[in-house]
Amino acid sequence: SITLAPGLVYYPDYLDRTAQENLLQAVRDITLAAPLYTPRMPRTGKPFSVRMTNCGPLGWVSDVSGYRYQPTHPETGESWPAMPRLALDAWETLSGYPAPPDACLINFYESAARMGLHQDKDEEEFDAPVVSLSLGDTALFRYGGLDRKDPTRSIRLRSGDAIVFGGPARLIYHGIDRLMTGGSDLLPQGGRLNLTLRRVKKPL
Ligand code: MD3
Ligand code: FE
Questions:
Q1: Where's the Fe2OG dioxygenase domain (predicted)?
Q2: 80-98 tens-digit pLDDT
Q3: Least buried of 33, 43, 130, 204, by fewest C-beta within 10 Å?
Q4: pLDDT digits (tens, 9 = 90+) for 6-15
Q5: Residue 135, H or E segment
Q6: What's the fold here for domain 2-198?
């Protein structure tokens, strides 16, 4: 692994090809029960270019009312599907946190999708890290510091990579500038999936 900053640890090729194929199939199964939907910005209702779904007890959603975690899909009203075992295993191995994740956001990027610089602060538990797993096309990932104006660095996140943001890196600004094609043939139609494993509620 490579420590990029205090609390920010990068694991290139964490998932081998077989694990990536297994996780991709698990995500396909999840999207049958909990379809990808287009989130909207609070207040303005402007659509995200990234489509999303979730698995696990809680899911992150965004609509004109705001950002929040909730136990049901915003369009079907159904509970989120269970987390794949592979994702739970990654959390156990990488997080160093003494309880399982209670939310897993799944982001799907088509070629023109991006995610602006933001902080993840809708969780109640900031002592838990966020663990990210990437599948499919390479993404140009940008991260900075705790202040939006802090200088930023960029790295490429490739299919099978894991990256963990904990401790002093948990609240840093980060985003996806763009996809880069030709890095992986995992997704036959191209695009990128990112799973972020999270602990939203403090353990009892
Ligand atoms: C740093 N996702 O879902 S993954 C997100 O690739 C998100 O889809 C991006 O930002 C994606 O919120 C980036 C890397 C990542 C995920 C969560 C973080 C970096 C993070 C939480 C805190 C700090
Ligand atoms: Fe984020």
A1: 100-201
A2: 999 999 999 999 999 999 9
A3: 204
A4: 999 999 999 9
A5: strand 130-136
A6: Jelly Rolls (2.60.120)
Write the CA distances from 147 to 54, 96, 154, 174, integer angstroms.
28, 26, 16, 11
CA of 163 to the centre of ligand 1 (A): 9
Residue list, annotated binding site for substrate: 60, 67-69, 122, 148
ipTM of the complex: 0.98
- Beta-carbon contacts of 188 under 8 Å, excluding residues fewer than 6 positions away, are none
pTM higher than 0.95 for the full model?
Answer: yes
Where b means 16+ CB within 10 Å and e means fewer, 163-179 reads: bbbbbebbebbbbbeeb
Going from the Cα of 175 to the center of ligand 2, the distance in angstroms, rounded, reads 7
Q: Give the closest ligand to the alpha carbon of residue 52.
A: 1
Binding site listing for Fe cation:
118, 120, 174
